[in-house]
Amino acid sequence: MTTKYQLIKIGDDNPYYSEVLDTLYRHVVELGLLKESIIEIDENNFHIEYKGNSPTFCLYFGNDSGAFKNLDLLKILIKDANLILPIASDLEKFRIQIPPELRNVNGFELSSNNDIEKLVSCILEGLSLLRLSRRLFISYKRDESSTVAIQLFEQLEKNGFDVFLDTHSIRPGEPFQEELWHRMADTDVVVLLNTPGFLNSNWTTQELAKANSMSIGILQIIWPTHKLERDAELSIPIQLIDSDFGNNIFQMPSSYLTDISISNITSQVESLRARSLASRQDNIISEFIASSNNVGKKADLQSEKFITVKQTDGKELVIIPTVGIPQAFTYNQSEELVTRIKSKNVVGAYLLYDHRNIREKWLNHLAWLDNYLPIKSIKIVDAEKWLSKI
Prior knowledge:
Blueprint: E1 5-11, H1 17-30, E2 38-41, H2 46-49, E3 56-61, H3 71-79, E4 83-88, H4 94-97, E5 108-109, H5 116-126, E6 135-139, H6 142-158, E7 162-164, H7 166-169, H8 176-185, E8 189-194, H9 202-213, E9 217-222, E10 236-239, H10 259-294, E11 299-301, E12 307-310, E13 316-321, H11 328-340, E14 346-353, H12 360-369, E15 375-379, H13 383-387
Parallel strand pairs: 1-2, 1-3, 3-4, 4-5, 6-7, 6-8, 8-9, 9-10, 13-14, 14-15
Antiparallel strand pairs: 11-12, 12-13
Helix pairs in contact: 1-5
C-alpha cells in the first residue's frame, strides 16, 4: 500500500482506545481491506508518519483538567482541513474537556463499551470505507484485454466493490454513452488496462479524458512491451512483465493474469481509492467553502463530513458533501446524520453534489425528490447563488 488511511489519536490517554482499535480492525477486515491499510499515528510518530494529502480521521480525547495536550499537532490538522472528532467522557462536560479550537464541532461521548461500535462507525464513515460506497470502473479494449477485465471484475466484486464493466453492467435499451459517463461520475477509481491499442479506440480515449476531468484516480495497468501513455501520466502505473501472465502469454485477448498479479492490482486499487476519495471530497468541500467566503458566509466543516452554515437569522443549515450520485441510501444516511445533530437551531439539511456527467433523467428525479423529502439537494455549481439567498 503506497497510500494509507491515517487514524490519528491525540489528546489524553483513554481506557477504551485499545478496544476501539480491535473493533476497527475487525470491521476493516470484514470490508475486504488489509489491516495494514490503516496506519496509527499519535504524538510519538506524528512528524514522521503524517501525510497531509492522505485520507485522515483524527480522534481528540479530552480531559477534565483544562491542560489540553498536543495543541501544536491539533493546529496542523485543522490547517490541513482534516476531520477531527472531539471525544468527551460526558457531553455535559464538553466545554470543560475539549479545547476551544474544537468546541464548534459536534463531539462524541465515549463513556462505556456500548459506545465503541458507534465510534468505529464514525471512523469508517469518516474514511469512506463503508462497503456500499466502494465503486470502481474498468476501462479496457475488448479485443485486447477482455479476459483480464473479467478477472478483475470478479475479484474486485469479491472484495466488496460495485464494479462497472460495460459488457456486464449496461442493460439492453440504455443509451450507451450517457450511461457510461453516468456510471463513471459515480466511481471511486478507474482501472485502465493499457494495452498497445488502448488509445486507438475513441471510447477508451474519452473515458481517460473524463476520468481526468472528474479528478478520479486512475490505476494504469501497462502491458509488457508497452509504455505509459503520455495522456495518462497523472495516473499511478503498474508495469506488467511476461511472468505476470499465465504461461507468460500476454498478446491475446484470452491472456490472463496470475493470482499474485491480481492480488497486487487489488491492493493498489485500495491505495489509490483512498487518495481519490479524499481528493474528490476535498474538491467539493473546498469549492463550497470558497463560494461561502465569496458571499460573506461562514462555513464550518464538522467531524462527520458535513458543513454547517448559518442563515441571516442565526439558525443553522447542514450541508452534506456527496461524492458521486446521490442515491436513496445517501438520503437515508443523511437523514440519520441529521437526527444525530443535537442542535435545535438546525432548520434544514442539503446534499451537495456535482451534477456534471449525471444523466438528465436522474437529475430530474433528484429535482422531483426535493419536493417531497426533508433532505434537499444542491448542485455545487449553484452553491454561490444559493448561499447568497440564505
